[in-house]
Amino acid sequence: QKEVEQNSGPLSVPEGAIASLNCTYSDRGSQSFFWYRQYSGKSPELIMFIYSNGDKEDGRFTAQLNKASQYVSLLIRDSQPSDSATYLCAVNPSGNTPLVFGKGTRLSVIA
Amino acid sequence: NAGVTQTPKFQVLKTGQSMTLQCAQDMNHNSMYWYRQDPGMGLRLIYYSASEGTTDKGEVPNGYNVSRLNKREFSLRLESAAPSQTSVYFCASRWGQGVIEAFFGQGTRLTVV
């Protein structure tokens, strides 16, 4: 059973701080990794994907991947109250297999 | 360009009733998926269709059936609804191989009483 683990939170950070969200996965052969944001009562929407070791930056968001440690993270700089949501980590084990999702981390940014 | 469209958005069923959740995508994606989301459980895969004409079971298929009607449409059927099937159901689609994201519909909130 391929597993994706996330701390359920809630993770509370003050406005303007860096929020760090973490995810580990069990399948060493996994190829690509996704971070989705889900507001309460809404559907998940993609924030970033990453498939190579290292960092990938997009605006205030940075995804980090370490395949040797089977670890992927999402950093949110200058956190805003509008970033308050549940963040889902998803892993593509290989090829055309379905994405496997973690249970999500609830982030709360306090103004 | 609507993306992934699910109907209905809300539904209340009595135990034992049947219903079909509809999903259609207009992005010419090959793969389509049905997930359910329960509090504290994340997104769990019910069934998926990797390509037109194929369907496969996911993590929690019991009590459900699916039909890939054509490349655009993928329906989920509950033959005899049970309270344990109370959940939010999401349809998603994806091009297929490679570093490709999944796009989600707006969800169907189903309550079985």
Write up what this structure looks like.
The complex is a heterodimer of chains A (111) and B (113). Helix content of chain A is 0%, strand content 54%. With 111 residues, chain A is mostly beta strands. In chain A, strands 2, 4, 5, 9, 10 and 11 form a 6-stranded mixed sheet that branches. In chain A, a hairpin with a 7-residue loop joins strand 9 (85-92) and strand 10. The mean pLDDT of chain A is 94. Chain B starts with a strand and ends with a strand. In chain B, strands 2, 4, 5, 6, 9, 10 and 11 form a 7-stranded mixed sheet that branches. In chain B, strands 1-3-8-7 form a 4-stranded antiparallel sheet, with no helix packed on it. Chain B is mainly β and 113 residues long. Helix content of chain B is 0%, strand content 51%. The mean pLDDT of chain B is 93. Classes of the chains: A mainly beta (111), B mainly beta (113). Chains A and B meet through strand 5, strand 9 and strand 10 of A and strand 4, strand 5 and strand 10 of B.
Write out key terms for the chains shown.
heterodimer, A: about 110 residues, mainly beta, five-stranded antiparallel sheet, globular, B: about 110 residues, seven-stranded mixed sheet, four-stranded antiparallel sheet, about 0% helix, about 50% strand
- The total count of strands of chain A amounts to 11
Shape of chain B: globular
- Which strand-content bin applies to the residues of chain B? over 45%
Structural class of chain A: mainly beta
Q: How would you describe the oligomerization state of the chains in this entry?
A: heterodimer
Distance N to C terminus of chain A: 40 Å
Share in helix of chain B? under 10%
Largest sheet composition of chain A: 6 strands, mixed
Name the shape of chain A in a single word.
globular
Structural class of chain B: mainly beta
Low-confidence stretches of chain B: none
Q: Estimate what percentage of residues of chain A fall within beta strands.
A: over 45%
Q: Whole-number average pLDDT of chain A?
A: 94
Main beta sheet of chain B, described? 7 strands, mixed
Low-confidence segments of chain A, given as residue ranges, are none
Distance between the amino and carboxyl termini of chain B: 36 Å
Gyration radius of chain A (Cα, Å) is: 13 Å
